[in-house]
Amino acid sequence: MSEIFFEILRPGINTTIQDYGRKYLYHIGVTVSGAMDLRNHKLANALVSNNTQEATVEFAYQGPLLKLKNGKINFAITGDVVFQIIRKNSEVENGKCYKNYFLEQEEQIDIISTKNSVYGYLAIGGGLKLKSYWDSFSINTKANIGPNNGKKFSISEKIQIKNSIEAKGPDRQIDYNNVSNKSIRVIKGTNFDYFSTESQSKFFKEEYSVTNLTDRMGMRLKGSILENKKSTNIKSEGLIKGVIQVPADGNPIILLNDHGTIGGYPKIAVVISADLDKVSQLTPNTKIKFEEVSLEDAENLFKSYLSETNKYLNEIN
User: Fold this and answer.
1) What does pLDDT average to in each consecutive run of 10 residues of the chain (317 residues)?
2) What pLDDT score was predicted for residue 166?
3) What does each C-alpha distance from 116 to 60, 65, 160, 179 come to in angstroms?
């Protein structure tokens, strides 16, 4: 049997492979990586009857144009995405997110763009044929770790698909609203007291803008300058996704999936886990405000996030 694969006719701006990420490697300087919007990653897999941990194609802003070679597949796209299906008879079908489709060889998926968000996900029934690196298929382009030599995809490359798939099956669809809430909930960081009382107040009361200096590693914000009354540089400490560092210029940086594992900027706050998907989808020039919650509230909000995610997954199944 001939191998099934996508031929990349247009790679898109930042097209990579992602899954849940790789764990327990901070001690050697390797961060988790993984899908920026984990819920949309899970939903894409569920719509094609995959395990939610199966690797998906993650794209940002403009997505790829893909031509299927040597087979039939079942696929789904999640996120706030505009895409089309180009059939063999040149008929163009407007796609709908959160719905599965069947594609035959020589047909194409044209992922035109995301709309009011950054990331979208393409899942293929049965999964992709990939090599695992430290128990994950996630690509970290900063460290060149993962499939495709740890790099985002380029034109004329191939994305291999497992041959043991069923290209027939039930139609699946859910109603899902990508809510864009501009309030980001945080808990105080370990260096919160490094900042003046006025700056602490500003951080929670005033708006910050998402800048163009944003990628899978981090998100630079612009707004009221935060005055550090103790030291703008500290002894390097371990970092996690969602930490908000403040460098010498006083503008916060939210660390995201491909962040460095240690850093020496003071940490004013940490985005709660329940809001990390939402943060990853913030587009440049979006205005946001930070809201403080307690550790107990953060834990309960994460339980609610998991419960809501499972509700959607159960609706599909």
Assistant:
1) 90 97 92 97 96 97 96 95 95 96 96 96 96 96 95 96 67 84 94 96 96 96 94 86 96 96 94 97 96 97 97 90
2) 56
3) 11, 20, 30, 10
Q: Which residue matches tokens 């701006």?
A: 13
Give domain limits for the chain: 4-161, 183-313
- pLDDT score, position 73: 94
- Residue 99 has what DSSP assignment? B
* Cβ atoms within 10 Å, residue 290: 21
Both ends of the chain: CA-CA distance in Å? 31
Q: Contact, 205 vs 292, CB < 8 A?
A: no
Burial class from Cβ neighbours inside 10 Å (0-12, 13-18, 19+) for residue 170 reads exposed
Measured from the Cβ of residue 283, the count of other Cβ atoms closer than 10 Å reads 15
Rounded Cα–Cα distance for residues 55 and 160 (Å)? 12
The answer to whether residues 272 and 298 touch, using CB atoms and an 8 Å cutoff, is: yes
Find where tokens 């909930």 sit: 185
The CATH fold assigned to 183-313 is Cyclophilin (2.40.100)
Which residue bears the tokens 């696929």? 75
**CB-facing half-sphere around the CA of 160: CA atoms within 13 A:** 11
Under DSSP, the state recorded for 66 is E
The sign of the dihedral angle between the CA atoms of 25, 28, 33, 34 is: negative
SS3 298: helix
Q: pLDDT at position 67, please?
A: 98
Euclidean distance between CA atoms 161 and 71, whole angstroms: 10
Pairing between β-strand 287-292 and β-strand 183-188 as defined by DSSP bridges: parallel
CA distance 246 to 268: 7
- Considering all CA atoms of the chain, what is the largest pairwise distance in Å, rounded to the nearest integer? 68
